[in-house]
Amino acid sequence: MHLITPTPLQDLLLDPATHPRGQAHLSAASGLVRAGAWLYLVADDEHHLGLLPAGAAVLQHLPQAPLVQLHRILPGDLPAEPKARKKRKPDLEALALLPASPTHPHGALLALGSGSKPNRQRGVVIALDATGRPDGAAQVLDFSALYTPLRAEFADLNIEGAFVANDCLHLLQRGNKGDARNACISYPLAPLLAWLAGTRAAPPAPLRTTLFDLGMVDGVPLGFTDGAALAGGAGGWIFSAVAENTDDSYADGECVASAIGWVGADGRLLRIASLEGAPKVEGIALDGKERLLMVTDADDPERASRLWVVALD
Known about the structure:
Distance between the termini: 15 Å
Radius of gyration: 18 Å
């Protein structure tokens, strides 16, 4: 497997006065999207989005990194005690940029819970304005109608990534040692947007479910953590994956390897490259055609998530 060396850009720090638990950083970044002039992050144990300006200056080594801004998308606050917070967290693991529509003329963000527990079956739609900033209150939706059929196929459901490509919303199911199957589940975009807007009673059925075998590292299977459509509209996409030593979607484990990979427009796995140092990459976003931005989750509330970049050939 080819080895790629990622470059750290900055820790995801914030003003503790703006955080509900007084935390000075995001500690569990799980999804990453670029929208207009902004980078958006979801953290699986927060009720807020994180925002960073996406200008070129942000993506260089600076004496002082810009702070993450917080934008509330779910009501209430989570417990400070780690085990209680883990039990109650919404587990927002995926973030996708939705295109402009009659309901959202400047597009919207869609944050999705993993579906791994009953309280993790929510989706949140955040309308954007012409500058790419959040516009109005977030819309919180029950995604159980979308997830229940998937659970019949994947008993340990764990949706970790989402992206739009070729008029479809693609959801990425992450495998683990208990069930190593990874999958890309593709939904027709127009009826899905109608369901999100409330003009359709039920979500559409998937067009297809494509299974992927990403291989193993030291007996631990690689599992999807995020995906993004490649530039140019050809239908291919790029993904991140980690080999986390755990048997299910709830328990954390040692990250023994991480990787990025490429899938062709025909759904065929083209290649996988290992990331040096095995950072636990949970979210990715393309910065043009030549750079991939990544965020990591250290599985430790005391450690800041980090923004990284890799050069793509």
